[in-house]
Write a structure and sequence with these properties.
The structure holds 3 protein chains of 3 kinds. Chain A folds into 2 domains: 7-74; 79-184, no CATH class. In chain A, 55% of the residues lie in helices and 18% in strands. Chain A has 7 helices and 5 strands, in the order H-H-H-E-H-H-E-H-E-E-H-E. By secondary structure, chain C is mainly alpha-helical. Chain C has one domain (3-84). Chain C is built from 3 helices and no strands. Chain C starts with a helix and ends in a 6-residue tail after the last helix. Classes of the chains: A alpha/beta, B mainly alpha, C mainly alpha.
């Protein structure tokens, strides 16, 4: 142990912060990542306090084995990938995403997110600057959301069983913006 | 003399790492942050490790330090590449594909 | 206070910056990036501790750490990728 410097207090503060956020986060994959960092910092603390054997055990178990276990457990909890096509924006930055999430159309998106969470699906919202046709051609999506000035278009897959319920939900919740629902054939 | 060189190398490496962390906090786009972690952070790591090797001199400890250095040089860019690849295949696109084609045509 | 101790403190402060990116980052991949940032800083910190205390067996912990950090970040990246199908 190296005495006299406040290194451990900084790291302990970090572990407390990470633990609180890991408990409060709604998305499980974020919690797994936070848990991995928690055990990393924790095992450095063991080493700092003069127990390298415990540190090795903590690193192997906490950061390797437990993470693998949680990831295989989460694999059963399917993700629902929602791709937001913002092709009218010039750049895609963090501020763009925050701006969209705060707007009235972002409210609809968070409504979809809440619906997915209630169905035990993990919503994965990905922003893309590609056009809708390009994303549909690529075929790696469950739902494409295309917000425009006053219209809100949702493209869903024909073979997806959730699409009908989502359409009902969106019609209920869209009061001031036009919401259009388009189904894409499932040939891909 | 070797102590001075080692400490100078460590200070330079810390500056590199600090630049990397600052840019990761400040840059606004995801893929620019990926470049920063893959390059600047690894350079900082290499410099700090070389500083430690110079401080330690020619011994068993410095051989182990060299081993860690080689290992991290091999793995750190690979893991960053895996992260960027995962984001790209999940559909996170910052640039439109047609944009790149347009600029290529303009250059021709 | 030693030179190496000061650099350890600076490294701890820098890893706090990586933590801020993890807590703030809008997407999962930003969090993964912050994780690889923190893990590289922890490896450097272990190496510095080993040189400071002059114990060569602490280096083995750093080797295991670099292996595990690599494995876990690649593993999570592959699992997250498009429903973990790839």
């Amino acid at each position: 142990m190296i005495g006299g410097i406040g290194l451990d207090s900084i790291l302990l503060l970090m572990t407390v912060l990470i633990a609180i956020v890991a408990v409060w986060t709604k998305i499980l994959r974020h919690a797994v990542i936070l848990l991995g960092i928690f055990s990393f910092i924790c095992s450095f603390l063991y080493l700092y306090y003069g127990a390298p054997d415990v540190a090795i055990a903590e690193a192997v178990i906490g950061s390797g084995l437990v993470m693998l276990l949680y990831l295989t457990a989460i694999k059963r909890y399917r993700t629902y990938s929602i791709i937001v096509s913002v092709e009218n924006e010039d750049r895609l930055e963090d501020a763009t995403m925050q701006e969209f999430a705060g707007s009235s159309q972002g409210q609809l998106l968070s409504e979809i997110e809440r619906f997915c969470l209630s169905r035990e699906l993990e919503p994965e919202i990905v922003y893309s600057r590609e056009s809708v046709a390009k994303i549909a051609e690529d075929g790696r999506f469950d739902l494409i959301v295309h917000p425009e000035e006053s219209r809100f278009t949702v493209y869903g897959r024909e073979d997806n069983y959730l699409v009908d319920e989502l359409e009902m939900l969106l019609i209920l919740h869209s009061t001031d913006t036009d919401t259009e629902f388009v189904r894409i054939g499932a040939e891909s | 003399m070797s102590t001075l060189i080692g400490q100078a190398l460590i200070v330079i490496g810390l500056l590199f790492v600090a630049t990397g962390v600052y840019s990761v906090l400040v840059y606004k786009e995801f893929y620019s942050r990926v470049v920063i972690t893959a390059k600047v952070d690894t350079v900082g790591f290499i410099t700090i490790m070389f500083g430690l090797i110079v401080l330690e001199g020619f011994s068993f400890v410095s051989a182990k330090l060299l081993l860690i250095l080689v290992f991290e040089m091999l793995t750190s860019p690979v893991s960053t590449h895996a992260i960027a690849h995962s984001a790209y295949t999940s559909g996170y696109r910052i640039e439109r594909e047609s944009d790149g084609q347009l600029t290529q045509e303009a250059q021709e | 206070m030693n030179f190496l101790e000061i650099s350890l403190l600076i490294l701890a402060g820098l890893s706090f910056g990586g933590l801020v990116r993890i807590l703030a980052g809008p997407t999962v991949w930003d969090r993964l990036l912050g994780m690889s940032l923190i893990s590289s800083k922890v490896i450097v910190a272990i190496a510095i501790v080993a040189v400071l205390l002059d114990r060569s067996f602490l280096m083995d912990v750093a080797i295991i750490y670099s292996l595990l950090g690599f494995i876990s970040s690649v593993l999570i990246a592959r699992f997250i990728e498009r429903k973990g199908e790839a």
